Amino acid sequence: MNWGIKAGSGFIPKWKKMLQGRKYLFDSLRKFREAHPSPLVWFHVASLGEYEQAKPIIKAFKEKNPFWAVCVTFFSSSGYEPVIKKKQLWVDHVQYMPFDTKGNAKKFLDILHPNAVFFVKYDLWANHILEIQKRQIPLFLVAAAFRKEQPYFQWYGGFFLNLLKNFYWIFTQREEQAELGKAAGLVNISRAGDPRYDNVREISLSPRHFPELKLAKPAFVIGSAWQEDMDLLIPFLKANTTYQVIIAPHDIRREQLHEWGKAIEKPYLLYSELNPTQGADWEVLFIDNIGMLSSLYQFARVAYVGGGSGKGLHNILEPLAFGIPVLFAKVKNENKFLEAGISREYGCGFAVNTSEEFTATMNVLEEKSAYKKSCEAARKLVNENLGSAKTIMDKVSKHIG
Fold this sequence. Notes:
disordered N terminus; 17% strand; 18 helices; Rossmann fold; 2 domains; seven-stranded parallel beta sheet; alpha/beta; globular
C-alpha cells in the first residue's frame, strides 16, 4: 500500500497530497504533545464520512472527560483537507495517520502516548493495532459495519479476525452485525447503532444561516452530485417549473458546473457570484465551495443525494434529519449502505434507476398525502435511531475509569 501510493503520487493528485501531508507528521505531533501533555484520546477515521460518525462520540467523550486532549487522524486527503480548514469543536489536533509499518506505529505511539484509542467503522491498520495492544491501551471499534463477505469471516481470515480480538469492545451499527461477530468468536461486541444519526440531528437543530439565499419557489437540493447523477436528473431539471434548484457537486470544477448549467437550459448562477442584495430570480444555483451542504437541506422540500450509481452513496441521513424525502440512484450493494435500505423500508428514501423513474417518484411526492407520509417517516427514522454516542460512552467509561 505505502509503496503503491508513493509510486502513484507522481500522477494521482490525491496521493501526492497524502504524501506531502505526512512529510512533517512526527514533528507536528511532537509540538502538539508538548503543548498538550494531558491524558489523550485518539480517534482514527478513514475520511470525511467516518469523521461524521466520530463527531457525536468525540463530543460525548469530551463532556465526560473535559481535561483530556483529543487527536483525530485521517488516512485520506479527501477527509483531512476540508477538516483542517476550520476549527473543529471538541478536537485539539488533526493530522494524517502515518503509513502502517511497525516502525511508524511504534514512533507514532511513543510520541502521541494515548490513554484510549477509537477506530471508526473499518479503517483498521494491523501494525498500529498490534502496537496498541502490546502497550495495553484501551482500544475500541465504533460504527462497525460487518458483512459476511469480509475477510474476517472467510476460511482464510484468521489473521484479520485476530485483529478484531485486540479491541476492548466492538460496537456495531446493526444487531445482525453483532450476531455475525459473535458467531465468529468475538465476545466483547454489541450493537450501539450508527452515530451519524446523532450528528445529523444536531446539524438539523442548528443549521448555518444563509440570508443571501432567497427563494421564490420550493427548493430541490441536489447534494454530492456526480456526472452519473446529473445524467439521470437533467431531463427532469430541463422540464421543471415547480422548484428552484440548488446543486452541490461532489467535485467543484467550474468548467463542469458551466457544462451542467448549459445542459439544464435554465438561468443559473454560481454561489460565489450571488449578490447578497439580489432577489430570488435564479432558477439553478451551483454551490462552488465546501462545507455548506449539510445545512442547505433546511431549504429543501425534496432532496437528491448522489454517488449511488458510482463510487458510493453519500450521506442521505443529512436531508432525512430535516424531515424531508430523499431520492438517490439505486446502489449495487445495500449491505455497504445500510441507510439506503432502511430509508426505503420506512418510506422516506426512494431509489431510482432511470430518469423516468425519478420523474415518476417526484410526481408522486407532489401529492400532499404522499409527501406528508414521507416526511413523517423521515422524522421517525431519525428519532428511532438516536442515542448511539451515549450507549458507546456508557460502556467505554467502564474501561477507562
